[in-house]
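Recap from last week: sequence in, structure out.
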Amino acid sequence: MKHRYACMLRLATFTAASVLTILTAGAQNTKDFSSTTTNADGSVTFRYENDKAHEVMVDVQFAGRKPMQKDADTGLWTLTLPCPAPDVYPYCFVVDGLSVMDPKAEGYFPNEGFKNSLLRVSPKSGTLISDSRPVPHGRVEYVSYKSKALGGVNNAIVYLPPRYDKDTSKRYPVFYLLSGTTDTEEVYYKVGRMNYILDNLLADGKAQEMIIVLPYGNPTKLLPPRQPQGGMMGGMGMMMRDVVGDDLMGDLMPYVDSHYRTLADRDHRAIGGFSRGGNQGLGIGLRNLDHFSYLCSYSSFTATNIPGVYDNAAETNSRIHLFWLGVGTDDFLYGNARDYMAHLDSHGIRSVKEFTTDKFGHTWMNARYFLDCTLRLLFNPEASEAAMKAGKPAPEATGQEPQFTAGVMAQLFPRQVTSPEFSDSKVTLRINAPSAREVMLQGEMLSEPVAMQKDADGVWSVTLSEGIDDVYKYRFVVDGTPTADPTNMYLAPDRGFKHSILENPANPYYLQNMGDTPMGTVAYTDEGGTLTATYTPVQASKPVTICLVPGANDTVESWFKIAHANLIADKLIHEGKAKPCILTTAKVKGAKELKASDYKTWSERRQALVKRLQSL
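Predicted structure tokens:
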């Protein structure tokens, strides 16, 4: 698909007042209301404010797309739907054909492409398996590590159990857990809520203590434009080899074993995942049974021609403590998953099979349920063996099972435009909106909103040539409706409307420009229902503490997800331009503060942080 560069802009120097106008112009949410309400009868009411919309629908995974009606008294678009079961459901609003996140919802679905919000429907009594209960909580750490397989830097998330820091002599088994196609490494944390599920199971004595590692299943997307890239397949230049497998086995696993107290043997390693992650996890695990003995597949399947596995049942069975496979009978992958289960049966490979009928197919409601099922068995040889012995054969094929085909793939994952796209000193931003009459670009890098131009394919674009050397928040306004960039995976984790993040790959604090810089961790901890974020450098001998205070619409993630405060500190410490320091959103008595509210843009906040660190 060809795109025209719409215009070249020479940007004026912007003022704080103009930036504030840009970020609030065209905004919704002028009324005080709740966008979602769970009613006493279990139904859910959705509300959305947009005076310029002609048609609005809500798209939620328990009901599909349903039209909303505009209330004459409140001016709000509303709809009440019966809810089938308490759970956490992804949803969005569809405004005149454009899918947008709920601008009033804090919870969101991290993804390379689509942008959804999260709805929690409470049970009438008790809690969900994924709720944050008043129990000891583990710590979730964001890490970056050098990847020889990738030829750059990759990201992962590491969960540490509640007692990890209390007994420093104890070592733990490790579960490598991958998310699905277009998901980032965050999804099993923010949507799957793996940390709270395991916290709750540990508190109830229903699971073994373990470390959980969330790899990123499409790491080539992290590479700058000068490197081969691609969507699902990870770039044409890397299609002929298993980049994810090479990275996990050769780079991530050694990183985890060297930075955490792991039990580094096959009896204490598990691997699995949801959808594409299940395929990746099974493929890696079955090819490396000298490293893994617990395998889990959630709504997935893998190759049936792995040498030495299916044709050697006795040896394979002796090496696998748990081979667990789950899928919904209404999943579009059900036929493929059932066929794979039958393949295992026909070759005498033992497995546990779980089927659901009430979680709406290929969804994260299933992914959470399957995770809860398997966490109860992992690293518990007795429980795993009992489950394996009780395993039943796959259901007989009826010929009516849905199968995953190229057509299904094209429908689920249509070709998308590239946005943002950096080239030399320019960046082009695009959105596919063929029915739109007007599209504007708003952002911290602009002195005023800029009109975008539409090409023959219905793609709107604009090219910026100046004022884009740092990190900025931006959004599109499509016929008066603000929306994040649908194809930019980086979202500002704000409390309300979530802008996209524009970061120039040429800036010195860009992840792939860190070179040999040792990179610390950013840990998220839940203390009494309050989430805090804390950066700790690799070497923290007598560190200074700086409290990073979020702004009014920020969350505790903002300083790290938008400003990349951790990467700035890593680089300055490594270059000897700053002393070792701890950066935290927690209140620390006597610590120096840096307030986001003192600055109008994230570029200004980053510059202020650099000066503060250099002055230590």
